[in-house]
Structures are given as structure tokens and as C-alpha cells.
Amino acid sequence: AQRVTQPEKLLSVFKGAPVELKCNYSYSGSPELFWYVQYSRQRLQLLLRHISRESIKGFTADLNKGETSFHLKKPFAQEEDSAMYYCALSGGNQGGKLIFGQGTELSVKP
Amino acid sequence: EAGVAQSPRYKIIEKRQSVAFWCNPISGHATLYWYQQILGQGPKLLIQFQNNGVVDDSQLPKDRFSAERLKGVDSTLKIQPAKLEDSAVYLCASTSGYKDTQYFGPGTRLTVL
Q1: Which residues of A touch B (CB under 8 A)?
Q2: Could you tell me which of A4, B3, B83, B95 has the fewest CB atoms within 10 Å of its CB?
Q3: What CA–CA distance (Å, rounded) separates B51 from A60?
């Protein structure tokens, strides 16, 4: 079964603390993994995708095929990082449709 | 570049009534998706169009949901009749190619009473 699991519904950290949002997936094949973010009163938008191997807004994510994980990390959280974060996967033969996790709300306190 | 547009932004109806949502994708985007996002969950694909043809509607409850994209541009999603469990945000997304970034609209929040 194709599935994305984000075990934490809410993650609360203080400004300047490291952040790790967990994502595990189940997929038979070679999926493409994404992190999407939704800031308050804004639309869902792409944060990063594993094939680009970029660092966006200080966030990075490494695909670990052995552990089937794609955790999102940032060394020093900022208040403006507070948002809903969704991990998603797309299969090579799935026509591009995204399978999303249930989301993790990140709250960065001052 | 203008983003994906959706209307209405909010809709409240009673169960068994009908409702329709509209989506205008980014100009030139051939692929259009409708997702349903129930409160506390991630978005779930309902239907995918490539131009005006359906690519995937395996998760669309076809006894009550229908969607069309007649000219390969705008799309409408209809629910008839609505049930309480249809209360959700309906998201439209578009992309120029299915391997490219999906751009999402602001969504339509449906409340069924």
C-alpha cells in the first residue's frame, strides 16, 4: 500500500532550536518525495523535493531509502517557520498525483 | 504570473443539496488535479485531468461526484447530493507536466449541515 506517515500532529520548539519533522513512507518502487508548506491564510506551496537536493529557507531533507524516511530538518528555527508541513510522495507511474501525509503543525515560540 | 483561481471560497449547504466548484488553472498548464482535504488530514486526490481527458478518477465517489474539463482549461467539480462527510476543503492544482511542480489554488471550504 502507498502511504505517507507523519507521526507528529504538532511540534513546538523555541526560536533558535533545531527542528526535525518526521516523514516515513511506504511505496513499492522509486517514489519522488516532497515537502509542502502552508503558512497561515496562504495556499499550499512546494518547499522542496528530494531530487533537487536544495536547501530552501534553511530547510533540508534527505531521502533514506533503507529506512523509507524523508525527514525535514532545520538547524535554527525562526518564528516565521510556524506553519503546517505536509510530506508527500509521487510514484513514477502514477501520473504525478501526490499522496500526502496528515501534516505536522510547527509552532516556533519566541 | 497569475496563480490557480478557485471559486467560491466558502460554501454552506444542507445535506442532499447540490454544489459546484470552479477552478481556473495557470495558463498553459495541461494537467489539473482536484484534491479533497478533510479537517486534520492531508489532501487526497479525487481526479486528475490531462487536457480535457481523465487520467485518474479511481478515488472519486462517482455516485455523487462528477467533474469535467470540457475545453482543457477551466474545470468544475460537482457534488449531487451532498452528504455530511463531504464537508472539507476542495483544492485544485495544476502543472505544466506531471513531473513538474504542482501549484495549488486557495481552495473552497464546503460545510454540509
Answers
A1: 4, 9, 43-46, 49, 86, 88, 94-103
A2: B83
A3: 34
Among all chains, which residue has been given the C-alpha cell 449531487?
B80
Q: Which amino acid is at B99?
A: K
Render the burial of A36-60: b for 16+ CB within 10 Å, e for the rest.
Answer: bbbeeeebbebbbbbeeeeeeeebe
Asked if A45's CB is within 8 angstroms of B42's CB, the reply is no
CA distance B111 to chain A (A): 18
For testing the chain B interface, which of A44, A47, A105 should be mutated: the one with the most B CBs within 10 Å?
A: A44
Bridge partner list, B49: B32, B54
Quote the minimal CA–CA distance from A6 to chain B in Å.
10
The tens-digit pLDDT sequence of chain A (110 residues) is 789 999 999 999 999 999 999 999 998 888 899 999 999 999 999 999 988 877 889 999 989 989 999 999 999 999 999 999 999 999 766 678 899 999 999 999 99
Residue of A nearest to B103 (CA): A45
Is the Cβ–Cβ distance between B76 and B68 less than 8 Å? yes
For residues A38 and A85, give the distance between their C-alpha atoms in angstroms, rounded to a whole number.
6
Phi/psi at A88 (nearest 5 deg)? -145, 155
Cell output for B87 = 464537508
Q: How far is CA B108 from CA A81, B1, B37, B56, B113, in A?
A: 25, 21, 10, 21, 16
